[in-house]
Give the backbone structure.
Amino acid sequence: MSLLLLPGDGIGPEVTAEVRRVAERLTPDLVIEERPFGGASFDALGTPLSDETLSLAKASGAVLMGAVGGPKWAGAPRHLRPEAGLLALRAGMAVFANLRPALCFPALADASTLKREVVEGLDIMIVRELTGGVYFGQPRGIEALADGQKRGVDTQVYTTSEIERVSRVAFDLARGRRNKVTSCEKSNVMETGLLWREVVTALHARQFSDVRLEHMLADNAAMQLVKNPRQFDVILTDNLFGDLLSDEAAQLTGSLGMLPSAAIGAAGSPGLYEPIHGSAPDIAGQGVANPLAAILSFAMALRWSLAAPELADRLTAAVETALTRGARTRDLGGTLGTAAMADAVLAAL
Ligand code: IPM
Ligand code: MG
């Protein structure tokens, strides 16, 4: 089995370096390759995602990305920006289902900006559609109008099969959890929302009627997430709403620095794993970033792509042990640096 590391930009290289240390300890037989990605790839190769890197990604057992983007590349043309490389990687790998767990580790319940009694024991899985919707819809662009104004266009578009395949992932996951799916859209104003609701309802009736299905407008879901987040088990939603709701859910758990994600496609194809924190240019290069989201992303890779669920459990347990023993990076109110936090995890392994 092989793992392709794409450190990327900002704190990406720092946190993926710790993943490498953990992997070398936990899975010594795993072949690890590394390629520049995002802004780093643009600087080195003139493109945020080279053809060679994409081919290698598709041929790997799993791909683990650090983070992309930063002010340095904000002025580059859109198709050459680091974020464009990430979208091209997701599309190229066809990883249509993005799993974003929001899990509140007991040791961190007080790190949340919400009251302990609201977030304690929180365990939500957001399933975000990742290769469609307004992120990829055509037409898009900014055009000049005759009267001197400009006009910007994005297109939100979904087909039945795009909705069905990601919904299947959500229903399957729910069966192994608390058996509830909350599907979020804006069917009150959007055509794609209406189709989304129809398709999810029909699939549920056909194949998943044992799972409890609830529909919720996405704005209400945003509110319910801070009001009573523990009502949720699996949240199923589109690309854009999933982007927003997953940042919100992450903050419930105390720190964006804690949360991993997995993007998966058709059975047997490699998954793409990424911490959901961004490149955090403000703290990049200082050795203070929390490596746990990246390390937990590696645990997800072990579970979903590398056929090693027992190692995934061990690694997750080691992270919990490190936290219970008091290991804290700055974002969690502590003083440990990136490497020292990873040391705490390695010690607990
Ligand atoms: C995310 C990020 C990305 C997204 C950006 C970096 C393109 O916000 O993974 O949530 O919008 O999908
Ligand atoms: Mg986001």
Q: What stands out?
A: The two ends are 21 Å apart (CA to CA). Residues 191-207 form the longest helix (17 residues). The chain has two domains: 1-96+283-349, 104-264.
